UniProtKB/TrEMBL annotation:
It comes from the Eukaryota. The keyword rRNA processing does not apply. It comes from Cryptosporidium parvum (strain Iowa II). Residues 26-194 form the SprT-like domain. One of its GO terms (biological process) is proteolysis. Its main location: nucleus. It is found in: Nucleus. This is SprT like metalloprotease. One of its GO terms (cellular component) is nucleus. Keywords: Hydrolase, Metalloprotease, Nucleus, Protease. Coiled coil: none annotated. The lineage of its organism: Eukaryota, Sar, Alveolata, Apicomplexa, Conoidasida. GO terms for molecular function: metalloendopeptidase activity; polyubiquitin modification-dependent protein binding; single-stranded DNA binding.
Length: 233
């Protein structure tokens, strides 16, 4: 009991320090070492953590390499706008993926199943943080999605997209997109690049997503879903 009380005290002190953004973010390498001992039973010795200035579509990402090594990458462009608490939660989210890989060889970083949720809830209870299965930084994501196209076909008249696709990279919608064939059959229009910013449209931010992040209709453009999804940078 004494050990649990002491551990809780240490965790609370650790989570409460450096919360003022003016003092800068805590060192992510120190966080990794601390969290490894507190929450992951010292199993993450093969995990490397680093900042990435190229990631603009996900707050964090865990990649797996041969030999059992994991690399946790954190988006500097997205996380620099957030609180230290959200940085901690993002790191712990990715470290759960790393832990499942190290201990169970679970390589599916996009799956948040029973084991992931078990450790997520366990760490939330211990730390008082609010780790979730999503990294929902909508405003920051939109800031980096500066390239905008609009279809000149019939879909431009229908919600929730009104024919818009916005991206962080300058790539025109085409056959490489999973929804392209459906769009070609149901609309057939061509996407024209917009020179102006995306206008305010009612319900555009919701984009018809369900709580699990899946679209409610097959004609919804995956690029527009305002969830931070884990993809390669």
């Amino acid at each position: 009991l004494l050990n649990k009380v002491l551990q809780k005290k240490i965790i609370n002190q650790f989570n409460s320090r450096d919360e003022d953004l003016a003092s800068g973010f805590p060192d992510i390498h120190e966080l990794l070492l601390e969290y490894n001992d507190l929450y992951f039973f010292g199993s993450l010795g093969s995990v490397i953590i680093r900042w990435s200035n190229r990631m603009t579509l996900c707050a964090g990402k865990c990649t797996y390499e041969t030999g059992g090594r994991c690399i946790v990458s954190l988006s500097e462009p997205l996380l620099k706008y957030r609180s230290v608490k959200e940085l901690r939660e993002t790191i712990l989210h990715e470290l759960i993926h790393a832990y499942l890989f190290v201990t169970s060889n679970d390589r599916d970083r996009n799956f948040h199943g029973k084991e992931f949720c078990f450790h997520m809830n366990r760490i939330n209870k211990m730390s008082g943080l609010n780790i979730t299965i999503y990294h929902n930084f909508h405003d920051e994501l939109n800031y980096y999605r500066r390239y905008i196209w609009r279809c000149d076909g019939v879909c431009r008249n229908h919600p929730p997209y009104y024919g818009y696709v916005r991206r962080s990279i300058n790539r025109k919608p085409g056959p490489a997109d999973s929804w392209w064939n459906f769009h070609r059959k149901t609309c057939g229009g061509c996407f024209v690049k917009e020179a102006k910013t995306l206008p305010q449209i009612n319900n555009l931010e919701s984009l018809g997503t369900r709580p699990n992040g899946q679209t409610s209709s097959p004609n919804m453009h995956q690029d527009d879903i305002l969830e931070i999804i884990e993809i390669s940078d």
